[in-house]
Amino acid sequence: MPEFGKILVLIGLLLAAAGVLLWAGVGRGWVGHLPGDIHYTKGNSSFYFPLTTCLLASVLLSLLLWLLRKF
Q1: Helix, strand or coil for residue 5?
Q2: How does pLDDT run across 38-67, given as a tens digit for each residue?
Q3: Rg of the Cα trace of the chain?
Q4: Of 13, 15, 44, 55, which is least packed with CB atoms within 10 Å of its CB?
Q5: How far is residue 38's CA from residue 40's CA, in Å, rounded to a whole number?
Q6: DSSP category for residue 62
C-alpha cells in the first residue's frame, strides 16, 4: 500500500505542476499551431484538425503512463 500512496502523491504533484504551467500561459502560442496541424478555410466554413498536437499529446501521455507503470 505505501507504493500506491507514492503514486498518488506523484500524480498530484504532476497535476499541480501542469496546472501552474497552464495558469502561467505556457503553451498558448504553439499548442494547436504546430507544423502538421491541418487548417482549411473556404468561404464561410473552416476545418481544423490539430494532428501534430494530438500526436505530441499521445507520446507524452504514453511516456507518463510507462513511467508510472515502472514504479
Answers
A1: helix
A2: 999 999 999 999 999 899 989 988 998 888
A3: 17
A4: 44
A5: 7
A6: H
